[in-house]
What we know:
alpha/beta
Amino acid sequence: MNYIIFDLEATCWKEQGKHKSEIIEIGALKINDNQIVIDEFNCFVKPIIHPILSDFCKNLTSINQADIDNSELFPETINKFMQWIGVGNEEYLLCSWGFYDQKQLIADCNLHKLDFKWVNKHISLKHQYAKIKKLERPVGLGSTIIAEGMKFEGTAHRGIDDARNIARIFIKYFDSWERL
Length: 180
C-alpha cells in the first residue's frame, strides 16, 4: 500500500465565496508500508476560470503568476498525478489534512468532465488526529505542528511544503490511522 500525503493550493480571494476556486498547485509525498517517503510530486496548474491570481492568493501562497502561466491545465496535470500515484495499478490511500482537498479534486474533475472515482480512496488526517488526541474539534496543521513540538518546515500554504509537514505527523502516528 502506498499512502499519498497530499495538499492542494487553489485560487483564492480575500472576500470568500464570491468566486469558484480551482487548483493551482498539487504537492504530494508517497509513503510505503515501511513508513519511508519513496517519492514526491509537485506541479503547478493553470486555472481556466480565473487565470490571473489575486494579490491575496499570491501573498498567501507565495505562488506567482509566472508559475501559473508556465504550467499545464488541470487535465494534463491530474493525469500525471494519477500516473504517479499508480491509479489502476497500485494500492493507494489519499491522505490530506481535512476534507477540503478531496472536495477540491472532485470539483476540478467535474469542471473538466473527468472521472473522480479514484478520489474516493481518501481519509482526513485532520479529523482522525482530533480523535487520536481526544480533541473537541479538529485543528489546523500549524497548530498541530506546534502541539507536536515540531517546527514548520518550508513555506506555509505551499502544497509541497504543507504535504511534507503533514507527512511528518502521518509517520509519527502511522499505526493509529484508520484506513479504508
